[in-house]
Amino acid sequence: MPDDISISGVARLTDRGVIRARGADAGKFLQGQLTNDVLTLAPGAARLAGFCSAKGRLQASFIVWRGGDDEYLLSCPLSILAPTLKRLSMFVLRAQCRLSDASAEVELVGVAGPPAAAMLGAAPPWSRSDRAGATLIRLPDAVGLARCLVAAPAGSEVDVAAAPAMTLDTWRWLEVESGIVMIEAATVDRFVPQMVNFELVGGVDFQKGCYPGQEVVARSQYRGTTKRRTFLFDCETLPEAGQDVFSGAGPAEAVGTVANAAPHPEQPGGSALIELRLAALDAGALHLGAPQGASLRQRELPYSVPLEAESTH
Fold first, then answer.
1. Which residue, 55, 85, 77, is CA-closest to 193?
2. How far is 56 from 311, CA to CA, in rounded Å?
3. Which sign, positive or negative, has the C-alpha torsion 109, 113, 263, 77?
4. What is the C-alpha separation between 99 and 210, in angstroms, rounded?
């Protein structure tokens, strides 16, 4: 954990929206489109899931939970919601499933620190509960702090006693610190799930059956072809999603891509999740935007990342 970081509060997540899938075939439809198992999703749980192209590249990533009967809610960045909704709708065909943008009906709030811990108690990550008409989802901790996603009817007050307001940038920094990549407009179609550690954080179920790109994702897993992974870095300047990363010791070609980034809440610059060639980790200093750009300083993720591609057979 970075030194002297103390964060606690509530942030309105105005950069995120919600897709609603409703109908008798909603679960079956999503099961055939997403990287994670939707049909076994219990009312008391939420899941991370991705939506891939036929080539196995992530078009979107979601936090998914069940709403009412035959209803699922999928939260994603607003920057990709409209094109993702359009693309998903192309595959509905005759299924009894209606997809819609529910962002105007559902307000999303992030809670971090002691207020989140008080709301969640001993609930494990990705558990879901209801409180005063709102849905609470326990997210994985970041820098040792409890985090909670609250989805409430638009216009309602989220009851978080004595919790101060927190900026959206601070919440986004905590998301980066959690090590969980969310696909943004600048990174659509850039990564196979393993490149952004998606299977390491529970975003891929390899037993669930077919979905777009499933063969590519499975091949990367079982043949040990993952040569790129995502790591956590600090930088004195603020990185931007989609920005190239270079090795100062190698040729002037990009060796990585910024997946997510946010300003540091208590010092200049920012933190970023950066997808890299594994070989670049030992090839010299890494720089943002150009071979002589701002230096990147690696920090530990909250989970282990395999540094060698190994077959699971």
1. 55
2. 19
3. negative
4. 20
Q: Give 32-81 pLDDT, tens digit per residue.
A: 999 999 999 999 999 999 999 999 999 999 999 999 889 999 999 999 99
The answer to whether 191 and 260 are in contact (CB under 8 A) is no
Q: Return the CATH fold of 194-299.
A: Elongation Factor Tu (Ef-tu); domain 3 (2.40.30)
pTM over 0.70: yes
Considering the four listed CATH numbers 1.10.357.10, 3.40.50.1970, 3.30.1360.120, 3.40.390.10, the one that applies to the domain covering 9-178 is: 3.30.1360.120
* Domain boundary assignment for the chain: 9-178, 194-299
